């Protein structure tokens, strides 16, 4: 029996990549955060401007001289690999919901087609405050908290 693919995972032809239209990135946008440690005025505005331009043109950028230890990235990468290898039922224990966007999700959509991706969204500063509803005059806020998976323990 030939393998089958869930139709919800197949992009319509109009949205599929067109090899003749692919733009090749000559150089990845790199933003140097070391200037943020300088007392010179205008540095923050310069970094924000570079970030805005990179996001508008490329949707991403690389940060250098951010001051974070390489071990931190290794630890997060290792914990994420362990989490990704868990059975689906275990990952679902950390599923995000309508009240909290942080947590596990495997049902994101792009252009009305389900993505072939799993994500575990979280924030560095827990307790992030957002408006309680989408009304323009909303004064009430709610605090969003990370929904950590029970495993692996080092991810909490």
Automatic annotation (TrEMBL):
Residues 29-150 form the Non-haem dioxygenase N-terminal domain. Gene3D superfamilies: B-lactam Antibiotic, Isopenicillin N Synthase, Chain. InterPro entries: DIOX_N, IPNS-like_sf. SUPFAM superfamilies: Clavaminate synthase-like. The lineage of its organism: Eukaryota, Viridiplantae, Streptophyta, Embryophyta, Tracheophyta. This is Non-haem dioxygenase N-terminal domain-containing protein. GO terms for molecular function: metal ion binding; oxidoreductase activity. It holds the Pfam family DIOX_N. The keyword Metal-binding applies. Keywords: Iron, Metal-binding, Oxidoreductase.
């Amino acid at each position: 029996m030939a393998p089958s693919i869930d139709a919800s995972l197949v992009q319509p032809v109009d949205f599929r990549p067109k090899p003749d239209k692919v733009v090749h990135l000559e150089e990845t946008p790199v933003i140097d955060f070391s200037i943020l440690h300088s007392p010179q005025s205008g540095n923050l505005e310069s970094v924000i401007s570079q970030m805005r331009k990179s996001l508008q043109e490329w949707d991403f950028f690389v940060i250098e001289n951010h001051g974070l230890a390489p071990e931190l990235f290794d630890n997060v990468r290792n914990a994420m690999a362990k989490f990704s290898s868990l059975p689906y039922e275990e990952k679902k224990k950390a599923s995000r919901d309508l009240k909290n966007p942080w947590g596990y999700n495997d049902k994101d959509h792009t252009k009305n087609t389900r993505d072939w991706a799993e994500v575990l969204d979280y924030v560095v500063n827990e307790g992030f405050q957002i408006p309680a509803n989408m009304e323009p005059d909303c004064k009430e806020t709610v605090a969003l908290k990370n929904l950590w998976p029970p495993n692996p323990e080092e991810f909490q």
